[in-house]
Write a structure and sequence with these properties.
Blueprint (H helix, E strand, L loop, with lengths): L9 E5 L9 H5 L5 E4 L4 E4 L9 H5 L5 E5 L12 H13 L4 E2 L14 E3 L20 E3 L22 E3 L3 E3 L9 H14 L3 E2 L16 E5 L8 H6 L2 E5 L10 E3 L6 H7 L7 E3 L9 H14 L6 E6 L4 H9 L5 E5 L8 E2 H6 L4 H14 L7 E5 L5 H10 L3 E4 L1 H7 L21 H4 L4 H26 L4 H4 L6 E3 L4 H7 L2 E2 L3
Parallel strand pairs: 9-19, 10-11, 11-12, 12-15, 15-16, 16-18, 18-19, 20-21
Antiparallel strand pairs: 1-4, 2-3, 5-17, 6-20, 7-8, 13-14
The chain binds iron/sulfur cluster (SF4) (2 copies).
Amino acid sequence: MAVDFLYPPYEVIRNHDKCITCRVCERQCANEVTRYDPQHNRMISDDAKCVNCHRCVSLCPTRAIKIVKTDHTFKTNANWTGDTISAVYRQAGTGGVLLSSMGNPEAYPVYWDKMLINASQVTNPPIDPLREPMETKVFLGQKPDAVQRDEQGKLINNLAPQLELSTPVMFSAMSYGSISYNAHESLARAAQELEIYYNTGEGGLHEDFYKYGKNTIVQVASGRFGVYKDYLEAGAAIEIKMGQGAKPGIGGHLPGAKIVGDISKTRMIPEGSDAISPAPHHDIYSIEDLRQLVFSLKEATEYKKPVIVKIAAVHNVAAIASGIARSGADIIAIDGFRGGTGAAPTRIRDNVGIPIELALASVDERLRQEGIRGNVSIVVGGSIRNSADIVKAIALGADAVYIATSALLALGCHLCRSCQTGKCNWGIATQRPELVKRLNPEIGYQRLVNLITAWTHEIEEMMGGMGINSIEALRGNRLMLRGIGLTEKELQILGIKHAGE
Ligand code: SF4
Ligand code: SF4
């Protein structure tokens, strides 16, 4: 029907004077945008199939291609944008829920960009991180209320199990199935080299990656895929996933078509069966129920591993976190509403949840007020984009951050936001062997190491500039932040002063 026609959002512009018809763009595109026309000896493209992943642009030997956003437009206004109108046409045509991938793209405030970091000048002078020691190591887990000594005055080591990170960054949950074997291998090797952690997500742990267990967080989600004794014992910590920033309040679904081979084996479900994670854990309807699962997992692993509880940032996140801090969990991971995903209903992703900056500030404040901040460490994720975001998160009260989208960018992701199709041209969000092999884990892991190493240097520089020489001294030090362009209420929630004050 004519009403269903939507003009393609991107146009492939090819300079035919430069094109040597090598057909690289044709071979590289899993979306089959381009084909060779022998009659006219030239390449032709179907713009409607283009997802703007830049694979052809990056590999064209003569720089003959560029992708441009179309200037074709609806008669839009501030209320009815082109995307809003197109969505109505698409849903009226299909009757289906709109699906998207990666994080919330809407123009909500990014509070990281509305906070500025302090620097020392005369008194409390800056520290030069190149010449003086700078401690970026952090320990995640429950901390005792007080130091205890025995009768001889020796310290009693009653420390609960901790995760030790060389720098306050971890790779957050991405399951094998939603991302490729080579992407997982890159993350696992980088975590090992960097002495940090990566996270299995809810897809189980591939047998080849048990050797990275010391740097692995194994996840237990509502579907319990791949969860059994050896899996729990393999990781350095266990994460109970209660929620995810990109889709708070709803479960997950990996279609049966993607449950093949090693993915079926790793998830421990039959080939071709849909992997459905229910929205709730069917054994958790209260903090007491959560406490039972926390202690079941601790019991199963002889109380040797910290347990993380991951939740989405939602309206009453501070009260929820207070309950989790009393549940016996060692670490709370909070995922903000800009967190990425392999697939989520678009309306949920774009409208449910709250920004991680506000969630973090209110959780840290609540736990301090209740005198239970030491019960748990706080890890935050949901669009941590650079080292400055990390410094701001720690100053707001986080112990460490989770990153995922920026890690995928380091692996080559071009944020085409088409992960749900399984045709990732960069070999990341795909299981097609010919695409998976495009991501070389040797190069992937090195790029991740480079990224985190560079960020750590920048964190040291920023801490040194503030006259602070350890992450521990920066944590919750909100005096090091000032707001810019924020309302009184926002400043109050963030617990910071306005610039100039
Ligand atoms: S990759 Fe570049 S040079 Fe090769 S066919 Fe495509 S546009 Fe032409
Ligand atoms: S992982 Fe692949 S499909 Fe997903 S946004 Fe990145 S490039 Fe696109």
